[in-house]
Design goal:
The chain is mostly helical and about 130 residues long. It starts with a helix and ends with a helix.
Length: about 130
């Protein structure tokens, strides 16, 4: 009878070990799935952020030639911040602002250029220093 009790206890312990192993395996699979889902969410958030930045960039480009100084100045500040927050957009922003200066800035003679032009020059200078 003692023999059957030992076999019964062995089978019970073996069942517990198998159940624990299955539980660990299922938990591991669930963690893996959760990690993949979190990674996908992060990628989606980054794509949404980049899309938003592209929209801001395009809107700022259109506002550079606006007749009101405060709108042009806002566009310059927006482009400056985009260049700081996204280093991969720093070069295109510099090229854009440089082209804007070359194409649209008049001869000011002895007068100081308007604040938007000064801010563009400051932005370009700051970006040169950061390189």
């Amino acid at each position: 009878m003692d023999f059957f009790l030992q076999i019964s206890e062995f089978i019970r312990n073996l069942g517990l070990v198998i159940a624990a192993a299955m539980g660990i395996y299922l938990a591991w699979r669930r963690v893996g799935a959760a990690t993949q889902q979190a990674d996908a969410s992060l990628q989606q958030a980054e794509l949404a952020r980049r899309d938003h930045v592209a929209e801001l960039f395009n809107r700022a480009v259109g506002q550079l030639t606006h007749e009101k100084l405060e709108i042009r100045l806002g566009a310059v500040y927006t482009l400056r911040q985009i260049a700081r927050d996204f280093p991969d957009l720093s070069d295109p922003t510099s090229e854009l602002l440089s082209a804007y200066l070359r194409e649209s800035v008049a001869d000011y003679g002895d007068r100081e250029p308007p604040v938007d032009v000064r801010e563009i020059m400051k932005t370009l200078k700051d970006q040169l220093v950061l390189r």
